[in-house]
Amino acid sequence: MKRETLKLRKIIQITTVSNVFEWYEYIVFAFLYTAIGQHFFSSSDPVSAAIETFGVFALSYLARPFGSVFFGWLSDHASTSKAARISMLMMAFPPIAIIVIPSYESIGIIAPVLLVLVRLIQGFAAGGELPVTATFAYNHTEPKFKRLACALVNCSSLIGVLLSSLTITVMNATLTQTEITAGAWKYPFYFSIPLMIFLFWLRKDLALMDKKHPVQKSDAAPVHYLSAICQHKRAFMTGFVVIASLQISFYLMFIWLPTYLQLFLNVPKLTASAFNTLSILVMVATVILTGLALIRFDGRKVLFHFFYIEIVAVIALFYWLIQDQSDFTLATISIIFSVLIGVIDAIALSFIGSLFQSQVRGIGMNVTFTLPAVFFGGFSPLIATWLIHHTGILMIPALMIGVVLLVSLILLIQFEREPDTRQAYLHQN
Predict the structure, then answer these.
(1) Which residues touch 188 (CB under 8 Å, ≥6 apart)?
(2) Domain ranges within the chain, ordered by starting residue
(3) What is the DSSP secondary structure assignment for residue 43, as one 8-state letter?
(4) Which of 195, 276, 427, 429 is deepest in the core (most CB within 10 A)?
């Protein structure tokens, strides 16, 4: 009997709200680098505060692969609903802990140590959140809507980033920097508490969904995650390079760019956060429109073409930005980057899901998403800040993005010549 598929609307409701919460509380930490640096590290120098805060931000990503493997395994061997619920429970703890941890002046070195531990827990939980919900969406959506569903899952993470950026913009517009560092920086973390309660309520139906709509598994026996990586290494490598390019582009252009504008180009905080909010808003619209287009069109070739375009654009646009920081320049660059990266973002998750069969899709999507997030996402703001601080080369972020994109594109072209990768993709579509 042909299994009944879940309605797209219900799937999106379940999967997207969780990602909004995760990315809101995870990214708002980076946007508050000055206040967090002063509170937990007693650093008065803005560049030092940025390096210390982005250092903790990067360290939290070291826990993500472990969370990814755990939640991927749980998704494949138990259920995606159980994996999602446990991930959510773990995500609930860090924002409350960050609020109550005393300052460096009160407890000394214990303050940053506790902060690192809390962020490691958050990183472990976050390692399973987006890939697990993407797997859930891909597995439970009828074929013609799979690409749209995955695009909307990715879009939900952007809405979380948008919400955090908007929160910081409002704070910069209504509060002084003294008020923010004195304690107002905690307000965004307080705001995450009602979001968390709402999400717990929303996810009460996850287990029932898995029972009513079980995933159709392959007849093959369950595969251990190490065996899965060995047996599907070409698919893992293909997914890795796609996500690596997306991660470094996204983190440097949307998470770290306000810091770059403030520290190195002397753009006011309110201006930097306002244009970053505009960028993310345009990217959200781009992902939604691209996802709708993917109902009718295969995004594989589009993905490759946009890699080519972004390599050229990132060098040219950063050079322009360094020469001119007018509102027109900031708005134009924000919109162009948002469209370029938004199209890639909309295609990426469904492309990766299509590379794996159902019995290894959970671990496949988790590992190929999370490992690049560590090295090319979490650490890229720290590396870029440190390199510019010590070399004075303002083109560092453009060079970082351009090199990763170029290497990834070369590898993808090589992988395209391998029959197993393309046949796996065609088999799933």
Answers:
(1) 24, 25, 28, 32, 164, 167, 168, 171
(2) 9-213+222-428
(3) -
(4) 276
Joined together, the tokens standing for residue 244 give 């690596």
pTM: 0.83
| H or E segment and range at residue 267 | none
Largest CA distance in the chain: 66
* Contact (CB, 8 A) for 75 and 222: no
Most confident of 2-11, 58-67, 176-185, 355-364: 176-185
Q: Please report, as a single letter, which amino acid is at residue 128.
A: G
Residue 398: how many CB atoms within 10 A of its CB? 20
Span 18-65, pLDDT tens digits: 778 778 887 888 888 888 888 888 766 778 888 888 888 888 888 888
Using alpha carbons, select from 158, 157, 155, 151 the residue that is nearest to residue 137.
151
Position with higher pLDDT, 344 vs 196? 344
Distance from CA of residue 385 to its chain's centroid?
A: 19
Collect all residues with Cβ–Cβ distance below 8 Å to 264 and sequence separation of at least 6.
388, 394
269-293 vs 327-353: helix axis angle to the nearest 10? 40
Q: How far is CA 132 from the centre of its chain?
A: 13
Torsion over CA: 36, 41, 42, 44 (sign)? negative
Residue 429 has pLDDT above 60, yes or no: no
Q: How far apart are CA 123 and CA 125, in angstroms?
A: 5
Phi-psi region of 188 (alpha: psi -120 to 50; beta: other; left: phi over 0): alpha
What's the rounded Cα separation, in Å, for the pair 177 and 183? 10
Residue 391 in tokens = 């070399």
Helices (H) and strands (E) in the chain, counts: 21, 0
- On the CB side of 326, CA atoms within 13 Å amount to 6
| 193 exposure class (CB count in 10 Å sphere: 0-12, 13-18, 19+) | middle
Q: Give the single-character DSSP code of 255.
A: I
9-213+222-428: CATH number: 1.20.1250.20
